[in-house]
Amino acid sequence: DAGVIQSPRHEVTEMGQEVTLRCKPISGHDYLFWYRQTMMRGLELLIYFNNNVPIDDSGMPEDRFSAKMPNASFSTLKIQPSEPRDSAVYFCASSPTGTPEKLFFGSGTQLSVL
Amino acid sequence: KNQVEQSPQSLIILEGKNCTLQCNYTVSPFSNLRWYKQDTGRGPVSLTIMTFSENTKSNGRYTATLDADTKQSSLHITASQLSDSASYICVVTDKTSYDKVIFGPGTSLSVIP
After folding, report:
1. Measured in Å, how far apart are chain A's first and last C-alpha atoms?
2. What SS3 state is found at A47?
3. Closest-CA residue in chain A for B35?
4. Which residues does chain B have within 8 Å of residue A106's beta carbon, measured at their own beta carbons?
5. What is the pLDDT of residue B98?
6. pLDDT value of position A20
């Protein structure tokens, strides 16, 4: 298995633009997580899904952020409109049923909003 | 409030030396504790998991310990290598929220020749 795949690897955009981050979890994993990592705050959970259903989105900072998981093999995190303070590394992780806390992370998307 | 703290914040050691990283948590009830290694520009990777009943667990040159009474864990790295340079993150799972984890801020380790 190729592991969790995220795209793009890097994204540079201007303030106000829409940004879409993509994630393909490991096949067979029932949990999918979106994290944001900054130097100041470390890793923060934004939202997670179980069997494609959003379970907890309390970490989503505001209405500008939205996430979807239309099927078991694909998820998106969208920011609209983007702001400079959204600049961070966004990680997607998946985990299997039985050990949902054993997270397999993707390589992340480095987002820079100018 | 459930929290995970780590010390030191950063550490520089010479290649070949040993080091110990600390993790203190207030998560209760406790389910398990994992140590992750995060290389620069990569996502974290799980090194080891400790459950309530386990005191020590090794993974190659990495040895994790857990004292569930004092709510402390340590990660000991033996005979450090340049490739050990990374951030080490302590992650604790709350037993009441089995599918949610609490991340520590990490310890940044630099191994220099």
Report:
1. 36
2. strand
3. A102
4. 43
5. 60
6. 98
